[in-house]
Amino acid sequence: MEPKTPTTQTTRRDFITKAAVGLAAFTIVPRYVLGGTGFIAPSDKLTKAVIGVGSMGRGHFGYDGTQVVAICDVDTRHLNKAASMLDKGVKTFSDYRELIKLPEVDIVHIATPPHWHGIMSVDAANAGKDIWCEKPMTHTIGEGKRVMEAVQKHGSMFRLNTWFRFKDTFYGMGTTVKPVKKLVDSGLLGWPLKVTVGKHTGYDWKFYWVGKDNLAPQPVPAELDYDRWLGPAPYKPYNEHRVHQTFRGYWDYDGGGLSDMGQHYIDPIQYFLGKDHTSPVSVEIDAPQQHTDAVGTWRRITYTYEDGCQIILDGEGKDTNVPYIEGPKGKLYPGFKSDIPDLERKLAAFPEPAPQMTDFVTSVKTRQKFALNEENGHRSCNIVNMGLIALRLGRSLKFDPVKQEFIDDEGANRLINPVMRAPYTI
Q1: Which keywords accompany this UniProt record (predicted)?
Q2: Which of 21-25, 44-48, 321-325, 359-363 has the lowest mean pLDDT?
Q3: Could you tell me if 230 and 243 are in contact, meaning their C-beta atoms sit under 8 angstroms apart?
Q4: What is the pLDDT of residue 44?
């Protein structure tokens, strides 16, 4: 058997691509032919490794068409609990860099806090792996650029784990996004459009994800490698409220309810507005002054695109009777209700939205881009990160969607690529 090197990984990927083109159905091909060791055919399960096996990571063990062969966590309690849920042969690691070197791993699933998503995604792509990453895609705009570059350079398949642009009832709308996309494409609402995301259109901003500004240093638990948990984030004394379930309340690792739910809510809007290859040109905020460490709440965030379309994030539930989408010709409310007479009959005359690749196992086997990938995922994550930067700075901002940088604001641009704690880099 030939050595399992990056060259072998490339050969394996080329083999899958050629096989997918030449066959209508997948043939039984031993994994050793493709450069792996598990003797699992492409017609069967792909192998997966999960980095971060707290409650989120453990919830992703059972996806159809995949088999978990390795796990990683810097907390031994999480690692041991996760290992007890899997086959005895699963490999366990405290350092993800060892895990991504495994030649038998097809997919690396990243379920860590967001401040790790960028570095791990780039390292996994450099190691020739396909990637399934939790939302938000990255903690900064600059990290998103680096992920996109690495994934495309190495030909990896990338899936971001928010799925509302292609399946499941879309929160308060009472429907999947597909008919919303069809309605927007039809032009029946007119243009430009304003989309309001808040309590009265069915969206909860989870303002319980706020930090504490008076954390007292505590001893680091024996089971936790806190230095490795921090990774690229600035060093701060340990307190249990910084880690695990409550990390979302601190700017160094996440961004509160906006970062937790923002990409779930905003990514489908990018999709149905047809904005997957661009970004808003401005972000305006109405919020209390934020603490430098602990994330707080906000009242309203308004994003505006070059063509006048807007996304309104209503944090205080101010707009009680607001439509979800409002255009010059009509409005759409939760439950797919509209002020357009006989909407369903009129809509039936228009074509359905283009089909999407919505199965990641098939994406990996055929090398077809997943519906939510490194490109459109980066763009919708940009919107979240634009809002977080504006909140941290306490001011509204102008943005260049081509250069992907802020206009005439050096302070904001420094937060696109904030300095990472040595020796970490991306």
Answers
A1: Oxidoreductase
A2: 21-25
A3: no
A4: 78
Question: Can you tell me whether residue 163 is helix, strand or coil?
Answer: coil
In this predicted structure, the answer to whether residue 148 has a pLDDT above a threshold of 80 is yes
Across the chain, which distance is largest between two alpha carbons, in Å? 68
Q: How far is CA 189 from CA 183, 195, 286, 339, 421, in A?
A: 7, 12, 28, 10, 48
Hey, what domains does the chain have and what are their CATH numbers? Answer: 42-160 (3.40.50.720), 177-356+372-416 (3.30.360.10)
Integer angstrom CA distances of residue 247 from 161, 185, 254: 19, 39, 7
Q: Running DSSP on this structure, what letter comes out for residue 68?
A: E
Partner residues linked to 108 by β-bridges: 49, 131
Q: Among residues 122, 106, 52, 127, which one has the least CA distance to residue 82?
A: 52
Q: Residue 184: CB partners within 8 Å, gap ≥ 6? A: 193, 272, 273, 274, 325
Question: What's the rounded Cα separation, in Å, for the pair 43 and 27?
Answer: 6
Q: What type of residue sits at position 240? A: E
**pLDDT per residue as tens digits for the range 310-361:** 999 999 998 889 999 999 999 999 999 999 999 999 999 999 999 999 999 9
Q: In sequence order, what are the residues at sequence separation of 6 or more whose Cβ sits closer than 8 angstroms to the Cβ of residue 423?
A: none
pLDDT of residue 405: 98
Question: What is residue 37's predicted lDDT score, i.e. its pLDDT?
Answer: 36
DSSP 8-state code for residue 240? G
List Cβ neighbours of 236 (8 Å cut-off, separation of 6 or more).
230, 242, 252, 293
The answer to whether 169 touches 144, Cβ cutoff 8 Å, is no
Q: What is the dihedral of CA 112, 113, 119, 121, to 10 degrees?
A: 50
* Sign of CA pseudo-dihedral 411, 413, 415, 420: negative
User: What DSSP character marks residue 199?
Assistant: G
